[in-house]
Structure formats: structure tokens, C-alpha cells
Design a protein that fits this description.
Layout: E1 6-15, E2 18-28, E3 33-37, H1 44-51, E4 59-64, E5 70-73, H2 85-90, H3 99-108, H4 122-134, E6 140-144, H5 152-164, E7 168-172, H6 176-182, E8 185-190, E9 193-197, H7 204-236, H8 245-260, E10 281-292, E11 295-306, E12 310-314, H9 321-328, E13 336-341, E14 347-350, H10 363-368, E15 374-377, E16 380-383, H11 384-390, H12 407-420, E17 425-429, H13 437-449, E18 453-457, H14 461-467, E19 470-476, E20 479-484, H15 487-493, H16 513-521, H17 529-556, H18 561-564, H19 566-600
Helix pairs in contact: 7-8, 7-17, 17-19
Length: about 600
Amino acid sequence: MAPPLLALQDIRLTLGTTPLLTGAELAVGAGERLCLVGRNGSGKSTLLKIAAGLIQPDAGNVFIQPGATVRYLPQEPDLSGYSSVLAYVEEGLGPNDDPYRARYLLEQLGLTGDEGTQRLSGGEARRAALARVLAPNPDILLLDEPTNHLDLPAIAWLEQELASLRSALVLISHDRRLLESLSRSIVWLDRGTARRLDRNFSHFETWRDETLEQEERDRHKLGRKLAMEEDWLRYGVTARRKRNVKRLAGLHTLREQRKQRSGPTGGARLVASEGDLSGKLVAVAEDVSLSFGDRPIVKHLTTRILRGDRVGIIGANGAGKTTLLSMLTGQLPPDSGEIKVGASLQMVTLDQRRASLDATKTLADTLTGGHGQTVDVAGQSRHVIGYMKDFLFTPEQARTPVGVLSGGERGRVTLAVALAKQSNLLVLDEPTNDLDLETLELLQELLADYPGTVILVSHDRDFLDRVCTSVINAEGDGLWIEYAGGYSDMLTQKGKPATLAPQAGTAPKAKSNAQASATSSGAAKKLSFKDKHALETLPKRIDQLGADIAKLRRILSDPKLYAKDRPGFTRATDALAAAEAELAAAEEQWLALEMKREEMGV
């Protein structure tokens, strides 16, 4: 087997007093396609920076094959100090690289190269940075959120370009469709360490859930074993103290294992505060048009948005998606035609630039509005620390200024502020930016269960497929057409093949109110009578077995038992082994049934 081009071994890094990486590993061979996944704050970007040589770890080894070229795309590219976009891109070329490829890539990405670097939009800066790292055709490409701020045509082009390269890829992205298309292996960064699965990203969620379930079983077994050992210690150590120092030390080791084998960081809980029911008609556009000077933004659009709809607005950057969003919500009047906004609307807006956040305010003050220590959520008063935990923040971050949080953390803060407000209409402009995959899953579930109406702008193809009941697409020259379903449904209706077929096990798309009621009227899955009976009786059986085992151990703790009653010693030993085996089987059965019950929501 050929040695890797890049290898990170036993990487350790502590930020302040908090260990971030505690033995992470990463190996990249020639032509490999790795996706690096994990929650926001798990250290993905930091590990990529260590691989790029931008950060030195506290401990561990970083190896790069001599002569191998590495290019790194940061999450927030810095173009300051360059006179033009072309100068920025050409500065990344090596002595043997083709300068014409730089101009070719800029042209493919919709840039001329003559643009100044001071007034670029987020999308233009991202395109320039992509051209800079792709132009040299490096041996290894390290890409941190390459699709951020890109529109759908640019994402589709990038996917094809990366697929055609011979370079090895290490990719951090929240775009599931991109990861499923490009990845061949998964590196999951979790609680400071890295686990690897040499399969496509479509297998990640199943693998992650199975891994966490096995950890839960192991913790449960460890807890049971710890209880048994403590029971033995309580009753048996006195008579055999000298002979069992080793076993006592083992108990302390078990306690330390349980302390260290903590479960995954607490899960996010996204709950939207529901407002009063809106009218059936949320927004009606009748033959509306709008132009900016000679440029048409919207031409003769007619559409109706009903209560419970989830409408996605999609198109290239600059097509006017945010403008159309403002029109449909009554914030911007059209030049012609009529917009009618429904009655009793309670609208909450999430803006894509997080402009509603004050960088100088602390996290706690941002959530409470600077008033007290509580947040009103869904009609209930909650302590701000508890509400922070729902969005994966620690109590220590309460006094942290919002301005120093990562992009993903600021995204979660914006969600927390928006979802605390009562609403029956959610208006989301690029809600998926910087969110990790697990938070995205929970946001999708929330929107599917939300009783109100959702209007959103997004470039995330998988998110659109999972959430939207219809999409309004910019067709060019101010023409907008509405299609039923999500992004892939739109491509099908337009006669274009979807970029990727739906993967087995993916979440279903959000349903309309009519579909939801039809589904709920069908037969729901239920636990069998046998399963219910087992769930009710197993805890008592487990307790009884524990008591029997404790009793047998007390009998066997007599050092003279074997000498005075050898048959009794044998019977007790056999009974203990049988009871321990039965206890292990009962615990496994109970845990499996409990997980099944939770999955069914019983």
C-alpha cells in the first residue's frame, strides 16, 4: 500500500482550558475523496488548518510527502492587499502552473479578474478563492465550506469540476448532495477524536447512529457492572482485603472509564413558538411586476401561498430572490399588479447576513434582550442557560460576546432568537449557512412539524428537497415559475435529470396539511403486545437478577466455602454464571425495546 500524501497522527490541541482535539488522526492518499464531518465547534476547521500548516498542534505529528502540493480554501477568504481578483488568483500559482487556467476558471465562475477586491460580495469572494486553489491542480485540496454564498448554478459547476480533478480532496460542507456526490470516505470528528468509514457519505447517518447506540449500550453495561462491583465491595472486601487489592483497583479504573466515556454532546432541541392561527390565504400575488431601472426583476408573476405551505425561492445570485421574498411578505410594493397579505400574520424573519445580531452583546443578553435571566419560548418562561443548551451552547459561553463566535455558532444564535418569538409565518433567507449537519436535520424536522407557513431562500438542494412543498425558480429576464415539490422535482418537471438520485434512508419531504392529515389517518406503527409486556416486566426481572447475583456473590465471598462445602461452592458458581448471562441478555433486550419505543414516539 502506497504511503499517504498527508498524515496527521495523534493531534492534540487545547484552546484556553478546553481540549479541542485529543488524539485526532487523518490520512489522505493520492486521489482520495474524504469528507470531514462533525458538529460546529468539534474542530473540523482547526484540523484542516493544521493539515494546511496554518496552526501548530500542541502535540502530534504532521507529515506531508516531499514534493506534494497542498492548497487550502478557508471558510472566510481574505482578499485584502490585492489590487484585483486576477492578481489574487495568480499569486496562488506555482512556477510550473498554467497562468491561462486562472483566467479560464474565473470566466467559468462568472468573474473577469479585473474586479477590485474591496467591494466583492460574499459569493464573488468565494468564487475568487475557489479559482485560486483550483488553478494549480494541486495534489491535495483542503476545502472548508466551498459552497457557502454560491448559487445553485455555481454549486452544480463546482461539483462537476471537483469530480473531474485528480487531486485528493478533504471536504468540509453542510451540502449533503455535494458530499454524497464526491465523497468516498468519511472522517467523523467527535469529542476530540476522529473515526473513519471508507464508504460514501450517504452511509454516514446510519453509521453514526449505530456507533452512538453501541456507546449507549456499553455505558449501560458499564453502569450495571459498576453497581455490581460496588455491591461486592460493600459486602465482600472486608474479609478478603489483602487478596483483593487488585479488584479494588479495578473498581476505581471502572469509575474512571465511566467518567471518561461520556456520551456525545447534548442534542439540540429546536422548538418554534407558535402564534395564533393565520388566515387560510397567507399571500396572493396577482400579475405583479417590478424593475430596477431598465432591469426587470419580476415580470407578471401570479401565485398563491396558503397556510401550511413551505415555499422555496431559488435562482442565481442577483436574480432577485430576496427582493421577491420582500414582495411576497408585503414589505416591498410592486410596480404593477397587486400583493394581498393574509390576516392575522405573525411573521418572524431570519436574515442571511445575521445583521440582527449585535456583536458587542453577550450570548445571554442577545437571547434575553438584556432583560433578566429568562427567555419566553412557546408560552413558557425558561432560564437562558437551559435555552442555550438546546442550541448546543455551554453555560460558560453565556458571557461570551456574539462577535467572537464562529459562523455556525452565530447561525445557531440567530435561530434561537427567531424561534423564541411567536409566529405563524417563518421567513428564512439562507437559513442553512454555516449550520452543521445535525443542526440542519433538526431544523428540517422543525419546519416539517411547524403548523404555520414557511417561505425560504436557499441554495441547499437537499434541504429544498426535504422541506419544500413547492419552489419558485428564477428562469431569467424577470420570469419566475412555480413548480410543485422540491429542487429535484423541479428538474424532473423541466425535463432535466436530478444531479443525484435520492438515497435510501433519507428523510421524507415536508408534507402539505392535506397530505399530513391523510397520513395521520392511516395505521401507525405500534409496539406488539409481547414487546409492551417485556418493557413492563424486564426492569423488575433485571432488579431481581441483580439481587440474586449480589446474594450469590456474598455466599462466594466466604473464603472457607470451597473447603467446607465443595458441591455448594460449585452450585453457587454455576448459578452466578447463569444469572450474569441472563442479566446481560435481559439488559440487551430492554435497551433494544426502549430504543424501538423511542423511535416510534410511543
